[in-house]
Write a structure and sequence with these properties.
Layout (H helix, E strand, L loop, with lengths): L2 H31 L3 H15 L3 H13 L3 H14 L4 H11 L13 H10 L4 H24 L3 H33 L3 E4 L3 E5 L8 E6 L3 E6 L5 E6 L4 E5 L3 E3 L1
Antiparallel strand pairs: 1-4, 1-7, 2-3, 4-5, 5-6
Helix pairs in contact: 1-2, 2-3, 3-4, 4-5, 7-8
C-alpha cells in the first residue's frame, strides 16, 4: 500500500473516531436533558472506559449521579474531574455542593499559609494551561535576552533584561505547578468511601479493635495499599486505620 493511501486511511480513521465520540456524548447529553440520568450515566461510563478520561465527561457523570441522589459516586466523579481541571469553577462549585450532602463534616487541620497559597496557585489552572504558559513565557524570555544582547538603546535593553527576569520566574512557577499536578495525577493516593458506613480498624483484620466510623462520600488518604483486601487510610482530620479495600474507590 502506498504511503499516501496509508495516510488517507489514517485520517479517515481519526475523523471517524472523533465523530463516533461526539455522537455518543451528544446522545448522553440529550438523555440528561430529558432527565434520563441513569441512561446518560451508563453512556458516560462507557465513554470513559473506551475513549479515555476527560474532565467534562467526569463532570457530566457526576451531575447524573447527583441527580440520582448517588452522592458518593457524584463526589467521586467530581473529584476526578477536578483532578484534571482544577481551575474549572463549575466543577469546584458542584464538588462543594456534593460534599455538603455527605454525613461526615470534616474540618481540615490547620497548615502554614504558604502551603495553602501554593496549592491554590497550582490548582487555579489545568496542567495543559500551565504547560502552555510555561512554553510561551520561555519563548518571550529568550526574545528578551536577545533584545538585551543585540539592541543598542539602553532603555530598550533594560526592558529586555528585566522582562526576561520576570518571565523566568513565570517559567519556573509554571513548570513547578505543572509538575505538581502531574504527580497528583500519576500517584493517586486519595479515595472516596462508597459503602454507607465502614468501621476503621486498628489493624487489617475484622477481629481487631474498632477505632471510628466513616460514612459514604468521605475522602481519605491511602497510606498503605500493599494488601489485596485491606488498605491503611488517613482521614482528613488526621485519624488513621485500616478498612476493607472494597469499601472505597481510588480517585
Amino acid at each position: 500500500m502506498h504511503t499516501v493511501q496509508k495516510i488517507f486511511l489514517l485520517v479517515v480513521f481519526v475523523f471517524s473516531f472523533a465523530a463516533s465520540f461526539a455522537a455518543s456524548k451528544e446522545q448522553a447529553d440529550a438523555l440528561y436533558e430529558q432527565d434520563k440520568f441513569a441512561e446518560a450515566a451508563s453512556i458516560y461510563e462507557t465513554l470513559l472506559k473506551t475513549e479515555g478520561v476527560a474532565a467534562e465527561v467526569y463532570y457530566n457523570l457526576g451531575n447524573c449521579y447527583y441527580k440520582l441522589d448517588e452522592i458518593p459516586l457524584a463526589v467521586l466523579n467530581y473529584e476526578r474531574a477536578y483532578l484534571l481541571e482544577p481551575g474549572d469553577e463549575d466543577i469546584r462549585a458542584n464538588l462543594a455542593l456534593a460534599r455538603g450532602k455527605t454525613i461526615d463534616k470534616v474540618v481540615p487541620p490547620s497548615e502554614m499559609f504558604f502551603v495553602t497559597w501554593w496549592r491554590d496557585l497550582t490548582h487555579c489552572m489545568s496542567i495543559q494551561t500551565w504547560t502552555t504558559l510555561g512554553i510561551v513565557s520561555f519563548i518571550l524570555m529568550l526574545i528578551g535576552v536577545l533584545v538585551y544582547m543585540f539592541v543598542m538603546p539602553i532603555t530598550i535593553r533594560k526592558v529586555g533584561v528585566y522582562g526576561a527576569m520576570g518571565l523566568f520566574v513565570i517559567v519556573l512557577v509554571a513548570n513547578l505547578a505543572a509538575l505538581s499536578q502531574h504527580l497528583d495525577q500519576a500517584h493517586r493516593n486519595t479515595a472516596i468511601i462508597l459503602t454507607p458506613a465502614v468501621t476503621v480498624k486498628s489493624s487489617p483484620s475484622h477481629t481487631s479493635t474498632d477505632l471510628f466510623l466513616i460514612h459514604e462520600g468521605s475522602k481519605v488518604q491511602i497510606l498503605d495499599a500493599s494488601m489485596a483486601e485491606w488498605m491503611e487510610i488517613k482521614f482528613e482530620e488526621g485519624k488513621q486505620g485500616w478498612i476493607p479495600t472494597k469499601a472505597l474507590e481510588v480517585i
